[in-house]
Amino acid sequence: MGSGPARLDEVAHLVLAFGRTLLQNNADAGMVQDAIGRAAAAFGCTAHAVVTYETLLVTISRAGEFRTKTGNHVPAINVNMAAVADVEGLLRELEATAISLEIVQARIDAIDRARPMYSRWIVVAGLGITAASLSRLFGGDWPTFFVTSFAGVVGTWLRQEIALRGGNVFFGAFAGALISGVVGGAAVLLGWSALPALCFLAPGMIIVPGVPLVNGVQDVINNHMTLGIARLGFSGFLVLAIAMGLAAATVVTGVSLPVAEASHLPSLASDALFSGMAALGYLFLFQVPARLAWVGILCGIASHTTRTFFLIQGMDIVAGSLIGALAAGVLAHGFARAFDAPVSAFAFPGVVAMIPGSFAFRAVVGYLEIVKAGGAASPGLVTETLSLSVTSLLMVLAITVGVVAPLACFPRRRSAAG
After folding, report:
1. Is 248:365 a contact under the CB 8 Å cutoff?
2. Phi-psi category of 360—alpha, beta or left, where left has phi over 0 and alpha has psi -120 to 50?
3. Would you place residue 3 in the very low, low, confident or very high pLDDT band (cuts 50, 70, 90)?
4. pTM to 2 decimals?
5. Please, which residues have CB within 8 angstroms of residue 204's CB and are 6 or more apart in sequence?
6. Rg from Cα positions in the chain
7. Which of the four pLDDT bands, split at 50, 70 and 90, describes residue 173?
8. Of 16, 122, 94, which is closest to residue 59 (Cα–Cα)?
9. d(CA 256, CA 408)
10. Considering only CA atoms, which of 351, 346, 353, 354 is closest in space to residue 391?
11. Does residue 407 or residue 168 have the better pLDDT?
12. Is the pLDDT of residue 418 over 50?
């Protein structure tokens, strides 16, 4: 246990720092409340936390006294699983041994200031591989593989440059999708690839905010409505910005992006190879510790390849996504317990390749075409666009349920948080 009679306002400040660090790195609301309660309990206090998208409110009580503190956080899409794992490790150490409040505060501050585990160039290269691997999973050939890899690298680099200069996150997503779409469209015009849909969509899919999207649904399911709806709204606008960037790229290049697209299923061996490679880029992006990267790759293979297996058997994509996410969720929860790591470090890289970015982008393009055509829009276009929209929503829900369902078998540690 931590040291005993620390001042209540100091404890409140400390537990607020725990919650803020987790929230800024896209932990779900339940994890944030759990961490706050455990940190407070280590100093003989109970805690009640209210988590919203803009504010974290914490009330600490002990022996009839209480303190309430609030702290603003910067809404961000930063995902740093190394930081989340470090916070979890610090919590476990605090619960097991006597550590002074000052030392704990210094260590949580050090976690906040720590440099990224992987350099930006490793992340850029990794996401280029992810974009290329996604193109192969969707039926692309080797020329398309290299085109989408380069487009993904260029788009990721531009987004990072905009972020480093304090640019708006939605503008960064729009600009990244635009430049990657222009690169892909130019390759099609030059005859380097005969698959324009993949040259546009695969680089755009690596920008999709999979973690906030899944966490948003999870928060809503767990009745954290305010934070969940805010995350879903943020994710929705980010997807819209990406789709608008891709649509602008079609105007610049003159290469059209089809709304309807024939599905392609790779062989199971090919699916396993490229789904593992796709997960690798997200592991770099999410700053998953190198010693645990193989678990994320295994979860990625399990989720996507399981879904492909059932799709080959004739199952629909929503049910297949649910089963694939369940496979990744069970593995993630099991390995998280084995390695004393947060479940999200394995689960999110494992399922993010199944996030239906392609469906969502084509739905937005379909809506734009409907607006342009007005009353002359064909019934087929309207039907296809609505189908893509509903399928996207159901797939996200299925993936989220698959990831969180194993909590029934591996329940989260109880805390003193209210």
Report:
1. no
2. alpha
3. very low
4. 0.85
5. 155, 177, 180, 181, 242, 243, 245, 246, 357, 361
6. 22
7. very high
8. 16
9. 46
10. 354
11. 168
12. no
Q: How long is the chain?
A: 418
Enter the tokens of residue 307: 């879904």
pLDDT tens sequence across 347-382: 878 887 888 878 888 888 889 889 888 888 888 889
Nearest to 311 by CA among 320, 322, 300, 302: 320
Give the CA count within 13 Å in the CB-facing half-sphere of 189: 13
What is the largest distance, in Å, between two alpha-carbon atoms of the chain?
Answer: 75
Q: How far apart are the first and last CA of the chain?
A: 20
Q: pLDDT value at position 408?
A: 64
Residue appearing with tokens 């979860």? 299
Q: Write the pLDDT tens digit of every residue in 153-164.
A: 999 999 999 999
